[in-house]
Amino acid sequence: MTIFDRFKLDGQTALVTGGSRGLGLEIAKALSEAGAKVVICGRSQSSLDDAAACFAKRGSDVLTFKADFASPAVAENAFQQCPGKFGPIDILVNNLGGRGCATPLQEQSLSDWQAAIDLNLTTSFLGMRTIGKALIEQGRSGRIINISSMNAFIANRGIGGRSYEAAKAAVVQLTRTAGADWAPHGINVNAICPGLFMTDANKSWSDSNPEVIETMLAAIPIGRAGHPEEIGPLAVFLASPAASYITGSTFMIDGGYTLW
Questions:
Q1: HSE-CB for 81 with a 13 A CA cutoff
Q2: DSSP letter at 101?
Q3: One of 65, 113, 164, 257 is an active-site residue; which one?
């Protein structure tokens, strides 16, 4: 086996939540290019169709599953349906998440808090429980990649909605504990913590809150925001045999923002 063979995902099926746009789409495209059969989940049929068209232009296929994973009940049902619909899942990427609410903590309602926790943490738990349980029962190895955030370790300046930081920090610890618990079963669990990437969502945020983005950009040692496609290679590495001795780890990809 050559060094490049260790990064191939031939014969693997990957499920990417929130995979129809942004960083999730870039991860899905990278996994597909490495040889995996990819299933992307999203709540909007139009975004799923756009993603499928993007794959078609690249000469590759993608499977789509429409569901609103922001709802725990819907997400739980969807995770249970996916293996029956697409076959056993070898790689789970829990990418779904977002700040959503930017209300200061002292003014945040309980319902907004719970919605943020569900979106950024509960959905990852449900995916891990369902897919991880299936892997254990079937005696198969697998990879779980949780997308956290650099905000798991810092309080981002100029933004409210601290439920996001709390949830993303919990995702990191969930990754560590599951990595320890499931290592004997051959299931590697790791997390990626992105910094500022100029996805469509962040471009929109920049239009309405330019001072926040400018402050962040000024604090990035590399001197720029990340390009969305730069996250794909890291996801491929963690999903591949090349990362077989890594579990419970967290990988920062933020241009050095958290080094200061």
A1: 13
A2: -
A3: 164
Residues 17/94, Cβ–Cβ less than 8 Å:
yes
In a domain, 38, yes or no: no
Compute, in degrees rounded to 10, the torsion defined by CA atoms 252, 166, 260, 251. -10
Q: Answer for the pair 232, 26: CB distance below 8 angstroms, yes or no.
A: yes
Asked whether residue 10 is domain-assigned, the answer is: no
Q: Is 164 labeled as catalytic in the residue annotation?
A: yes
Mention every residue, 6+ apart, whose C-beta is less than 8 A from residue 226.
194, 195, 196, 197, 198, 253, 254, 255
Please give the residue range of the domain that contains residue 253: 70-259
Place of tokens 């956290």: 148
Asked if the structure places residue 53 within a domain, the reply is: no
Q: How many domains does the chain have?
A: 1
Query: For 63-116, what is each residue's pLDDT tens digit?
Result: 999 999 889 999 999 999 999 999 999 999 999 998 877 788 899 999 999 999
CATH number of the domain encompassing residue 137: 3.40.50.720
CA distances from 122 to 17, 95, 118, 159 (A): 13, 12, 4, 22
pTM beyond 0.90: yes
